[in-house]
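The following block was generated as part of the benchmark described in Methods. Ligand: flavin-adenine dinucleotide.
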Amino acid sequence: MDTAFLSELSRIVGADGLRASTAEKHAYAFDAYTLEKQLPGVVALPRSTDEVAAIARLCHQHGVSMVPRGAGTGLAGGATANDDQVLISLSRMNRILTVDAPNRRLRAQAGAVNVYLTRAAAPDGLMYAPDPSSQTVCTLGGNVANNAGGPHTLKYGVTVNHILGLQMVLADGTILETDLDDVGYDLTGVIVGSEGTLGIVTEATVRLVPAPEAVRTLLAPCDTIDRATELVSAIIAAGILPAALEMIDRTILEAVEAAYHLGLPTDAGAVLLIEVDGPEAGIDRQAELIATICREGGALDVTIASDPLERARLWMARKKSIGTIGRLAPSCATQDGVAPRTKLPLVLREVAEIAAKYQLRIANVFHAGDGNLHPAVLFDERDPEEVQRVLAAGGEILRACVRAGGSLTGEHGIGIEKQEFLDLVFSPEDLDAMRAVRSVFNPNGLVNPGKLFPSGGNCCPHLPRTDNETLLALTKTRAAAV
Ligand SMILES: Cc1cc2nc3c(=O)[nH]c(=O)nc-3n(C[C@H](O)[C@H](O)[C@H](O)COP(=O)(O)OP(=O)(O)OC[C@H]3O[C@@H](n4cnc5c(N)ncnc54)[C@H](O)[C@@H]3O)c2cc1C
């Protein structure tokens, strides 16, 4: 990268805010989608929105692209940059700014780690509901960009249901503020899920919800995956809305057990982890009803966690499951297709057939209540022929989900991983409309080019561009003075 550009960048973030050596840049060469690796031109670690805006202005002047990055736990390759680009890591912007308990809202910088939001709200009996399994590491900005979900999405919804306002730096350094309380276009909704292609989110105001008075967590081992997925539909059909309804198959159970010795039923084909929460009154009746449905539906056993420690043990099995896959294979590609709940048995059978066809091991741990599958394809990325089979199998899994009436992603986003599959669910007109939206915010394609859509840059030359002034008028932008 140009030396004058680098020294100007260093002036903005300070010498300790730059990572420019090859060794340092290796730490940013990939995210949790490890199949694509590239070294960024340079990594900048700003400490404030003003520094992010100054970086954007500099990049804009020099025509240099920027890629926002949180914790790099994304599973679709969205947070990597090439050697012409500046990777902007928000990890130093990790402060909780305000907790407004009476109004049930919290304001935090984009680099704040997800679990710290709930920790900050807990003394007031409140919590931030979206809880990705990566919540001890992933950031609020990454959650906003990917519209993250989690085990409790079934009852509480995904990130977009909990974001009340955003601060975002546009490609030319303009600072945009959105607020759900304002009239006009719902720009907050547009930005959530845009995978960093519209700008760099620097702060967010989130909705807090009351922490439930009572929680019951159940474990239902089943002989087969089929049986477990049939129970998922039976529970929902009985009119119960669990807070979480997760499935873990035997392959993963064995890996978790080997790592943590939690006493899990490793002889089961799969287990369901089910949670209900709400007022103390009636919670035991709900848990018992679910236990009865499971027993009558053929579960091998049902246990109800009797204390918080036991509950934590069950959740550890779920939340540490992807990490323990490292015991099973050198590499893992986690898919993220969605299928209607009632089609889960069918799609999971197809996943098993795809594994056999491509001679791959595929393990399953997923948000069963949402129909959000995460087939984890186990392989060794040093074997190029095996990598080809993994990519082909991944494509077939996504096609199976779409054929069943589902979609390409439940929560991990498109990134660079799934671009070629967008036309399975979107028409050319749908894609043009989305590219047109991107052009409004990111007219020169300088923020996160080459992500989400099949090609980088401004992909919609025939559509009129809207300059920032128009955007500001449209959105009632306010100068950022928070
Ligand atoms: C073990 C494991 C379990 C997981 N479980 C879940 C789960 O249960 N639910 C779930 O939804 N996901 C899950 N994920 C995926 C991942 O954690 C989420 O997508 C998360 O939201 C990414 O956050 P991050 O801070 O790591 O973002 P990154 O990976 O750094 O970035 C992800 C995307 O967001 C963009 N981005 C990051 N920060 C900003 C910003 N400030 N402004 C604009 N764009 C930005 C990046 O450009 C990129 O496109 C899991 C991942 C792992 C490794």
